[in-house]
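Known limitations

Files may contain more than one protein. Parsers should not assume a single record per file. Below, a two-record file is shown to illustrate correct handling: read the sequence, read the token line, then continue until end of file.
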Amino acid sequence: MSDTRAAQPIWVFGECLVDDFGDAKRLGGAPFNVACHLWALGETARFISRVGRDAPAAEIRGLLRRWPGAAAWLQEDAQLPTGRILVQRLGTGMHRFEILPHQAYDAIDADEELRVRALETSYLLYHGSLALREEGPSRATWRFLASRAWGRFVDINLRDGCWQRPWLAELLQGADTLKCNDEELGVLQREFGLGRGDAEAILPALAQRFGVAEIVLTCGPQGAMHWDGATLTRSHALSISVVDTVGAGDAFSAGWLYARRLGATVAKALQVAHGLAARVCALEGALPEDPQSFYPAFVAELGVAAKGAVRA
């Protein structure tokens, strides 16, 4: 990534919600988690989402007060509730998710201010797929933002009932970076007839099919891979004691973006991404309760330079 583009903001688009474990509730949503990690590491990011007029929305706004201006583009919906996902613990840190329909994040609007800023600003667009599950306001806003961005980091999240093949193809087409896990790669392989074989064979076929510049594949404890059209790079996961895997993939994405914008090589960026994901797996929940100690320790351990002070 060039120095000029590394200095340009990341616009993070998508859901913020509550993960409801029954006995506990935690704030989440992949774009929300990624934005919080990036802010804490000193990155310039804009978070574009929508919440209801309810207690979870107030809690989300309260957390975002850690960073000046973080809630500036957080929209409010008078009818739809703040997003909620019912989470069932399965043991060994794994979970089953029930994603509720028709939530505020399905109705993210491209208002006049957002349109003007998109026309005036050069930005990298980070987005997932969950907030785009319905043919409605969020998908229309995404199409507009994607058409104005200089690049797209696509972090898919293929939950049952929350995606359809035609728009998934639209989502993938021309992505600068696609990040997915090994299970999601299997879904893409089947849905788009990418042939047989292991990841080494499927990644080039996927990249060629949709014109994707690079793919980052996470494989849990087996590590990760990166394909850029010419070179396959492998990385080993860190050996850790897992408390909770919720948010690990989001931390990986944030670590990758952060390292690459600092000019790190692919190998180093994978190491940094694994490092942040591992630290999050040692937490209860996707975000640290004490960011003032969490992020400086991460930066020091991985040998990368922080861009700014971490705010409480």
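...continuing to the second record:
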Amino acid sequence: MSLIVWSHPYSAYGQKTAIALYELDLPFELKLVDGSPEVMEDFLAVSPFAKMPALIDTAADRTVLESSILIEYLDRLAGGGRLIPTDPEAALEVRFMDRILDIYVGGNMNRIIFNRLGRAGTPNETAMAQDAAELEKAWDLLEA
């Protein structure tokens, strides 16, 4: 099996995929997306939206994008049932948690950090407070 993963260590979604690869003990080659023109040209040919991670399974001649889909694909490659339960109800719960963590936890945390670091200009305290409130709702939901 020949898996090539395009990612960067700072990518939360790349880290999520790396955890799955290591947990499933699947060998892979990392292609570091470092922002250089040469690498970006190759990366954009694989991931037209420039989103990480991207996976190429050369054995299946298949490209897989989006970390959640990648993890399901990797789980199937490894025999299934280790990361995504085979029970449909349990699988729904895993997918639900995945979406909550990606959208409502990760999304809000990323906006707060981006805002706090000032990369959006002057930090927008109102937006950060709204994101923090949404983050609290997500934590409450996960802890329920």
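Parsers that stop after the first record will miss the second one. For reference, the second record is described as follows. Residues 88-116 form the longest helix (29 residues).
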